[in-house]
Amino acid sequence: MFIKNLPHKTVERLSQYRRALLLILSKEKTHVFSHEIAQMLHITPVQVRRDLMLIGYSGNLRKGYDIKELIDLIGKIIDSERGQRVAVVGLGNLGKAFISYFKGKRSKLSMIAAFDVNPEKINRVFDGVPCYHINQLPEIIKQNNISIGIITVPSEQAPEIAEALVLSGIKGILNYTPKPLNVPAYVYLEEYDMITSLEKVAFFAKKNDERFK
Question: Is residue 35 pLDDT above 80, yes or no?
């Protein structure tokens, strides 16, 4: 199921909604209201309702949203019917954490390969994911129909790795280095800079600290 021109931020929130809904479902609830979802994610109920209207879903005024139904709908929108395969490039602490944390979290996303240059990591298996030498990247990506790459290498190596991923046929990249990347328009790029995020938190923490003195 594909909805044209769905805003990037809405897609991001849909993923968060599904995670929240799965948690609520585990508590044996069958329905939920927008204000309950909003409270869990620290956003407004209006935002929740707007996002769900964009995907054509509305709840019952008395009972709220059917949790299982909404989880299934979000899955049809976000997930690929055939599933997608993911590779991590850079098997340091962050790369290993990705593999370990992600294991079994989503049935439609499979972490199936890792790449590194460290001989102590190559030809080993980490949490079920085999690690290959970086020189094997084009071959393994194409052979296993991998469409998503996660970059967790030292920042100076990121542009070269991104280029190799693009040339190998990758369609989406998650860049976890502070180095901005340039990729073709047909490759979706998501960049996450932990330093920037921490500085943002520090700014607002300082602001709150000053406000309540």
Answer: yes
